[in-house]
Amino acid sequence: MSVVIGTAGHIDHGKTTLVRALTGVDTDRLPDEKRRGITIDIGFAQMRSGERNISFIDVPGHERFVRNMLAGVSGIDAVMLVVAADDGVMPQTREHFEICRLLGVEDGVIVITKASLAENALIDLVREDVGELVKDSFLENACIFVTDAPTGRGIDDLREHLLMLSRDRSKSLRKAYRLPIDRVFSQKGFGTIVTGTLAAGEIRAGDEGEIYPLDRTARVRGLQNHDRTIEKAVAGMRVAVNLAGIERRDLSRGDVVGEVGAFQAANVFDAAVEACREAKALKDRQRVRVHIGTKELMARVSLFGSQKEIADGRQGLARFRLEGKTLIFAGERFIIR
């Protein structure tokens, strides 16, 4: 059983430190991240116990890197909403929570970190503050763990709880395979490698794949799951795919590796839209950023009927004309900014 968990929360609330305490892996891999002491791009780690496999996607908490955060949480099964005991709920706590809610994340936990920096009375206040934030949401009845990475407080209990999470993938396993790409790089002796969370189907070494929306094909030379070579990956797994027949420079985050001929990219779609509370109104003919899967595209909005705007907290119907093509599926959640 494989489950993908994403972090969420404000900058400097200890998301990366928490993942390291759980897995022993420092997800900050970029030199600039280590120099500046902040997470800039999404990072990855794994926790295994028997047949249970937890993949973590650690996301940046700074508002300037929200596009990277969106690419990271697009395929998660559950979220760890992280709030520092000495700071409480902050702007990106709210923003990240709203993103997870709008993307339809259905499971998760709340983790209060840095417990050694706060008195019990303050921790209780933070617990109440978080409870108010998630009221009437998918996290309303979520377990709350109070942790402190340097001392190990609460880490074992949190790890045990996370290993009990599960996800039914029987429906997605029967579909054509597709892998939204969240990272592209090349490695000496291997060539082009892409990573992502397999959204549907099964992929095997030797399979042919189509790169959407590029109208290009490539062959799967090999597969890895967290540095472990595998012959087959199934829906819900984090996977690195070694591709033959295409160069690293031809690919980018947001492209999709999928079954040849199974899909058709599009640049226009209609959708139901919800404007977050306290957000600016979405106006007819407005130009926006659309995040679908790991893809980010600019688009022009056309509201249906006589609507001139969708105010905060309200819903409406809209048509989006993308400035480029991507794969879009009925019922798929997306974010507009």
Give a description of the structure:
The structure is a single chain. The chain is 18% helix and 38% strand. With 337 residues, the chain is an alpha+beta fold. Strands 7, 8, 9, 11, 12, 13, 15 and 16 form an eight-stranded antiparallel beta sheet that branches. Strands 2-3-1-4-5-6 form a six-stranded mixed beta sheet, with helices on both faces.
Keywords:
single chain, 337 residues, alpha+beta, eight-stranded antiparallel β-sheet, six-stranded mixed β-sheet, 23 strands, 18% helix
Topology (SSEs and partners):
Layout: E1 2-8, H1 15-23, H2 31-36, E2 43-49, E3 52-58, H3 66-73, E4 78-84, H4 91-102, E5 107-113, H5 120-133, E6 144-146, H6 155-162, H7 170-173, E7 178-180, E8 183-187, E9 191-197, E10 202-204, E11 208-212, E12 216-225, E13 228-230, E14 232-234, E15 238-244, E16 256-258, E17 266-274, E18 282-283, E19 287-292, E20 295-303, E21 309-310, E22 315-326, E23 335-336
Parallel strand pairs: 1-3, 1-4, 4-5, 5-6
Antiparallel strand pairs: 2-3, 7-16, 8-9, 9-15, 10-14, 11-12, 11-16, 12-13, 12-15, 17-22, 18-21, 19-20, 19-23, 20-22
